[in-house]
Amino acid sequence: MAKLRGVKFGRPPTVIPKNFDDVADKYENNDITSETACQLLKLSRGTFFRSLQKRKLEKRGRDKLINRHAEQSTKFQQINERRHS
């Protein structure tokens, strides 16, 4: 019954700070430690590393999409060149 009314179950998601990308870049470039990153973001280590993993997966997905688009454009150009040759 509650679910039908739209009641949300479980723990609410953690709000990721706006400066996460900047701090994550510094961490990935070895400019700061994970401990420092967590202190700056006021996140637990687990939340920091989960968010970092999610960010990497999203970036990989964007990169794949961009590569797929580039491949399709190249194929389209090759087909067009064959037609007009």
Protein architecture, described:
The protein is mostly helical and 85 residues long. It has one domain. 66% of the residues lie in helices and 0% in strands. The chain has 3 helices and no strands. It has helices at residues 20-28, 34-41, 45-83. Helix 1 packs antiparallel against helix 2 (34-41). The model has no long low-confidence stretch (mean pLDDT 85).
> What share of residues is helical?
55-70%
Please give the radius of gyration in angstroms.
21 Å
Q: What number is the mean pLDDT? A: 85
Question: What structural category characterises the helix and strand content?
Answer: mainly alpha
Number of strand elements: 0
Shape summary: flat
**What series of H and E elements makes up the topology?**
HHH
Helical segment tally? 3
Biggest beta sheet summary: none
Percentage of β-strand residues: under 5%
* Low-pLDDT stretches: none
The count of domains is 1
Span between termini = 66 Å
Characteristics of this structure?
85 residues, mainly alpha, single chain, 66% helix
Topology of helices and strands:
Elements: H1 20-28, H2 34-41, H3 45-83
Helix pairs in contact: 1-2
In short:
This protein has about 80 residues and is mostly helical. The chain has helices spanning about 20-30, 35-40, 45-85.
